[in-house]
Amino acid sequence: MHELQEPPGGIHPLLAGRFSPSRFDPSAAVDDRALGLLLEAARWAPSAGNSQPWAFFTARPGEPEHQRLLPHLAPSSARWAVDAGLLLVTLTRRRVDDTELLYSEFADYDLGQAVAHLTFQAQALGLAVHQFRAFDLDGLTEELAPAAGWAIVSMAAVGRAVGGPPEGRERHSVARLRSGPWASSA
Q: How many whole angstroms separate alpha carbon 152 and alpha carbon 166?
């Protein structure tokens, strides 16, 4: 069961204020400077063996890339994502360079780290990020044709949120995080 709660004092205000908006201001652009800082933050994320197995396809309204993404959004995400100042497609390289390994068990985790760093930087810039998977994965993969070994994982909308975070947030308790899926020893 989720608990409605306010974040405790002591966690960074950017983390406490983070939320996934369901509305973006369509007049708020993500300029080149902001885009560069977002990608720079992702670039500095930790990764297994410093492999940095992530990439981003970026698309802003008015750019041809944006028009390539829109047909692949599910109706549920198209209602709000089209108004964001930036759409990102996140990719990971699951094949391990210079080895016989065909799959890195850490690649998706490492991509998550990069997106988390990007999200934190967005908050610092006064922007919000809403990550989502409501899109046609097969159609988008065909459209973008990533190189061998690369896979599209998710998308994110970035921009200025309309409205603030919801009153109270439902989050699992720390006690539940610690008790998690452990089998009882009885």
A: 30
